[in-house]
Write a structure and sequence with these properties.
The chain has ten helices and no strands. By secondary structure, it is mainly α. Helix 1 packs across helix 6 and helix 4 packs antiparallel against helix 6. The relative contact order is 0.11.
Amino acid sequence: MSTTRRYVGDQRDAAARQTRARILDAAEHELVQHGYHAMTIASLARAAGVSPQTIYNSVGGKAAVVKALYDVRLAGDDEPVPMGQRPELVRILDQPDAAATLRAYIALGRGMYSRIGPILGALLADGPGADAELKAFMDTIETERRIGNTSIVSHLDTRFGLPPQLSAEGAVDILWVATSFDLADRLVRRCGWSLDAYELWVAEVVVASLARTTGIDSDAHR
């Protein structure tokens, strides 16, 4: 490929990324201000300053736009790096004991919620209604969360052990409920808790429930 063709291709890619980012920014504003069911591709196109066909070509239909917005905000960027390979998760797995691992995991979740809280708040307030695509997306969120929770519990069990009275499945249940975005939405958006207070409370709950009490897990990591 010639240098000129490569340059033109890079320019097109950059323009496409900028257009996509503008669409997602507009979608976040429309979603938070007006709700999912009031947002249409036409209203989104007006807000983003593009044609409806550009939205379909760049991202997809309304549910696809919300999923793309969620994925980008959840990760904190638009880079194609799986969550399992990101340095934040590597740091969690490198913690010296179960309590520190859980606190680091909750801190990661707090950071994610700080970016996606307004989006999820709008979705939870409206509910999927008869929109099958949105319902499937919301179900996917919960499935993916449970997969991530299971991975953390497996790491805890293998490296540090779980409390003797607790099964691995029970530990996943506790972590899945404690880290649910619905719980975060209730405490932060609806009850007015600060993110600091939310993170501290959830961390205390999961550490008390899931960290095996040994001489290794100490309050020194609080």
